[in-house]
Amino acid sequence: MMRVNLAACSLSLLGLLFAGCAATVLATAAEPDLELFVLGTAQDGGLPHLGCERPCCVSARETGRTLFPACLGVVARPSGQLLLVEATPRVTEQVALLQKLAAVTNRGRRPVDAVLLTHAHIGHYLGLAFFGREVAATQAVPTFCSPRMAEFLRSNGPWRQLVELHQLELRECLPRIAFAPLPGLLVTAIPVPHRDEYSDTMAYRLRGKERTVLFVPDIDAWDRAPDLLTELIAGVDVAYVDATFYDGSEVPERNLAEIRHPLMTDTMQRLALVARARPGMIRFLHLNHSNKALHDKAVIAELERQGFAIAQQGERQVL
Ligand SMILES: [Zn+2]
Ligand SMILES: [Zn+2]
Q: Model pTM greater than 0.85?
């Protein structure tokens, strides 16, 4: 059984009756202290995907449909300080989107006040290169990550140069010990199993005074760590969850057993009761370009009927 906060559950159900949409965050009269925005929802390669000549990406190129790699941004009010969660290869557009959504301007060479990284796969940290001397030449931007990820950045070019020139300031976060990358924002790292070639991989819980958001964009299949899903979503109001592949049929050349990510169909089965009790709480992101939940309206309608949601670029949560 999943542990679900029943009080919060019935409150959110009540809220639903009036709001009509679980995904919508109710605006409060006073300006919230912390707001979170989704800046990207796709797998590392985004949509369209380099090298894909299938209809998913051919049509995206024709229509101009663009989805950035999974990424979040947080703004703290009233200071306007910004946190970027993941530095993807589309960091330029995503920081611009964050500044626009947060109505924060004139940032110059300090585009954000802090960066939080999950792991060293290309869609999650390559954007750090744009903090270097060829582009923004930032000054000592606090960059929060695991000790192993920090060691990888310190030891390997071109990232090492960012550290040596003090463009980034590495801050190592230890598992399950909360830290505050922005005033009022408490973040906790939870290690998750993943293809750990260069670094280990973290999921993050981001807690403000009102709500807690989970960010787990990349993880191995749930049966490799049976109790982890329960731990990850306990006490969480909104969960952004790895949805790289829908049911495996989108990668017919791969043996299902070799797919390391949880399939969306498996995640939906495990979280069926939670989604029914709290529609809109489980929000899928990190979708591969080929995932039918990006393209097939009937698939999207069915998962929404079950209480799940596909995260949308630009959506907002109050923390
Ligand atoms: Zn494609
Ligand atoms: Zn990864």
A: yes
Range of the domain at 131: 6-318
pLDDT tens string 86-112: 999 999 999 999 999 999 999 999 999
| Cα 131 to middle of ligand 2, angstroms | 21
User: What spacing in Å lies between the alpha carbon of 260 and ligand 2's midpoint?
Assistant: 10
Task: Indicate whether 22 belongs to any domain.
Answer: yes
Residues near ion ligand 2 (CB < 5 Å) are 121, 218
Distance separating alpha carbons of residues 269 and 53, to the nearest angstrom: 32
Sequence-distant (6+) residues with CB within 8 A of 140 are 166, 167, 168, 169
Whether 1 is in a domain gets the answer no
Question: Distance, CA 226 to ligand 1 centroid (Å)?
Answer: 31
In a domain, 116, yes or no: yes
d(CA 243, CA 293): 9
CA of 100 to the centre of ligand 1 (A): 29
| pLDDT tens for each residue of 270-293 | 999 999 999 999 999 999 999 999
| Residue carrying the six token digits 């990550």 | 145
3-class DSSP assignment, residue 251: coil
Please say whether the beta carbons of 209 and 31 come within 8 A.
Answer: no
Distance from Cα 2 to the centre of ligand 2, integer Å: 26
Domain containing residue 13: CATH number: 3.60.15.10
